[in-house]
From TrEMBL:
SUPFAM superfamilies: Glyceraldehyde-3-phosphate dehydrogenase-like, C-terminal domain (SSF55347), NAD(P)-binding Rossmann-fold domains (SSF51735). Gene3D superfamilies: Dihydrodipicolinate Reductase, domain 2, NAD(P)-binding Rossmann-like Domain. InterPro entries: Gfo/Idh/MocA-like_OxRdtase_N, Gfo/Idh/MocA_oxidoreduct, GFO_IDH_MocA-like_dom, NAD(P)-bd_dom_sf. Residues 8-137 form the Gfo/Idh/MocA-like oxidoreductase N-terminal domain. GO terms for molecular function: nucleotide binding. This is Predicted dehydrogenase. Residues 145-275 form the GFO/IDH/MocA-like oxidoreductase domain. It holds the Pfam family GFO_IDH_MocA_C3.
Length: 380
């Protein structure tokens, strides 16, 4: 029988947004078993959550220190192989650092940390260790997003000359205009979210999508953020110009006050031979626009797709692939990597992507606060 990876989870308890996605993703391809963790900040709540969800209750921990101490006391064969960190942002750094220092593989939610400095410390901490580290930029798990990456790689679009990514949500609109209501979400609390709300929450996904699909690296950014109120310390909207090189440019638009928008992530990439566009709310349709040819609509599961895209699909064409499947595909890639099986570099975003994301957030914030100037992204 195939050995399942022992997975621990930090955060993601009953009332959380993203927890269920990680749990379902872990079980999707039968590579993992959830053995314990700390799903809430209070031990009793974690225990209750585990009981209510049929999860084992003998490895529920008070916090990260308790988890490390007790897991390290177990024989290696019993110990958690990998731990998912799905808490609010401000807790990621301390948890991840301790996990890396004790040689656990890690799956971490975005944004990786609350500062670029912390992200660089994590990069140092993993150096020389043979550990797998994934950052869950979930949208990279969709079959047609993976197909975009492979189409660019294959040269079908020619030389990329323009990129346009938009991530519009409207959920902060009913909250932002009332000072009391702002206190109801950690996203508007710099202590918990980090310096940024909009860029750290969704702008960073958009940034990752561009680099993931085009294979290009953003060189510098110029941003114009909106805070709406002087007493609100957090950006809730931001437009960022992107410069890849002298002749390759793009724009990233993100908003949490795009009233009425739900999860409107869309990306358009234009090369000198073809363009393509994809929307998260309609993820099974990829539009390919080649010069002098009729519009083509590519869909998951058909033989014309790349191996990476085809391997991201479980059912015959016509069964819609959704956000749970996308996360499941990321967990699948991580399992292959941990088990030493072959995998494609497009199967999961890495710590390096997480570090670049933090670099992007801080550079864009610096650009805005210094009068909308160009600020470089480190390209080591
Ligand atoms: N990949 C994506 O598309 C995506 C989508 C949403 C959120 N996220 C990220 O996931 C993370 C969590 O976001 P969310 O919206 O699920 O948050 P949330 O506030 O809905 O849930 C957070 C969970 O963490 C638990 N928690 C808080 N403190 C804890 C502690 N000290 N120890 C253990 N558990 C603790 C809470 O009890 C809760 O269950 C954030 O970093 C966010 O940016 C990613």
């Amino acid at each position: 029988m195939r050995k399942k990876l022992k997975l621990g989870i930090l955060g993601g308890g009953g009332n959380s947004l993203i927890g269920v996605l990680h749990r379902v993703a872990a079980y999707m391809y039968e590579h993992y078993e959830i053995v314990g963790g700390a799903f809430h900040s209070k031990y009793e709540s974690s225990l209750e959550f585990a009981k209510n969800n049929g999860l084992p209750t003998d490895r529920i921990y008070k916090n990260i220190d308790d988890l490390i101490a007790k897991e390290m006391a177990l024989p290696e064969t019993e110990r958690m192989d990998v731990v998912s960190v799905v808490t609010p942002n401000f807790l990621h750094f301390d948890m991840v650092k301790k996990l890396l220092d004790n040689n656990f593989h890690v799956i971490c939610e975005k944004p990786l940390t609350t500062t670029y400095q912390e992200a660089k410390i994590l990069k140092k901490a993993i150096e020389g260790k043979h550990l797998v580290f994934a950052v869950t930029h979930t949208y990279t798990g969709y079959p047609m997003v993976r197909e975009m990456r492979k189409l660019v790689e294959s040269g079908r679009l020619g030389t990329i000359q323009k990129v346009d990514v938009q991530y519009y949500q409207g959920w902060i609109n009913p909250i932002i205009h009332d000072v009391e209501k702002r206190k109801t979400t950690w996203h508007l609390d710099p202590e918990k979210s980090g310096k940024s709300s909009c860029l750290a929450d969704i702008g960073v996904h958009a940034f990752n999508m561009i680099e993931f699909t085009t294979g290009l690296k953003v060189d510098k950014v110029l941003s114009d953020l909106n805070y709406l109120y002087d007493d609100n310390p957090m950006d809730i909207d931001g437009t960022v110009l992107l410069r890849f090189s002298k002749n390759v440019k793009g724009v990233l638009r993100s908003s949490q006050v795009a009233t009425g928008e739900e999860n409107g992530l869309s990306i358009k990439i234009y090369g000198d031979k073809a363009g393509m566009k994809w929307e998260q709310e309609d993820p099974n349709f990829l539009y390919l626009m080649e010069e002098d040819k009729p519009l083509q609509v590519l869909k998951p599961g058909h033989a014309y797709n790349s191996e990476l895209s085809l391997n991201s699909v479980k059912l015959p064409p016509g069964h819609p692939e959704g956000i749970f499947d996308a996360m499941g595909n990321i967990y699948l890639g991580v399992a292959k990597a941990i088990k030493g099986e072959p995998y494609d570099s497009g199967e999961f975003p890495t710590l390096t992507d997480g570090v670049r994301g933090m670099n992007f957030i801080e550079s864009a914030m610096e650009s805005h606060s210094n009068g909308n100037i160009w600020v470089a992204i480190d390209n080591e």
